[in-house]
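Re: weekly structure request thread

Next one in the queue (268 aa):
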Amino acid sequence: MDYKKFHLKRLKNELLNRNKLSDSSSNDYKYLDIVKSAVEDPVVYETFRNNPGYKDILEHIKKDLAYEYYKNLLKELSHEEIINYCSSIKNIGSPELVEINGASINPTSLRYLNVAIDIKNKFQNSSFENIVEIGAGYGGQAIILEKFFKIKNYYFINLYDVNLLIKKFLNDHSLNFKAHFATLDSIENKKYDLIISNYAFSELPKNMQIDAINKIIKNSTNGYMLVNNFHKISFRYMSQKEYSKNIKNLKVHEEIPNSYLFNKLLTF
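Done, posted below.
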């Protein structure tokens, strides 16, 4: 799916459906049906990352953007290191692979690695033993982050069925941290060293964004969130001013590489 058209469709839906209540923009797709089937059916699980309805949400990075991630990573890592880190996420679910410099790489893994390196650089000398992630997909970001930080506890905040898929995917990998799973409604009051979100927070309706801020972000020492829907005026999501009002010490950065016009990186 063309990434630009994907976000234009999302923006159009925001304008058309601003008075409707919904869990997230992902409800416009059959994403959850695929997630549930992947958890319950081993045959579906074998190819879930290549299912069109799932790819629209989690595996939609095209080769040109994948190569931009790769070029950015070469500033910090060798080709061999990039391949080794990306291969730590097993290609379970038959994800799409692209050829870059003679190697077959999953584009989403390149994004996760790009995020991990950026966190390492932006929060130098920081220890992240307790990390919470809002909207963790299938858990790939956590797998990559463990290569760079000594994580003790990783908290996955997502819909119940998505958490089941994450748990299943993580069980196919050897990890040292303890995984915890909760929904935004069920999460307990805890302190975190880092809150991370790759676009998921910004796709929540405004009332759920405020809820996540009160329950998670305000309890986090540091934050790293890639966001879309970052507009001066927004009907369904928080506006730029509302972000600044509700999150202390917020810094706005350009997304590197930039995957869409309205995407930004927020840290605190």
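Strands lie at 98-100, 103-105, 130-134, 153-157, 178-182, 192-198, 220-227, 251-254, 264-267. The chain has a mean pLDDT of 91.
Next request, please.
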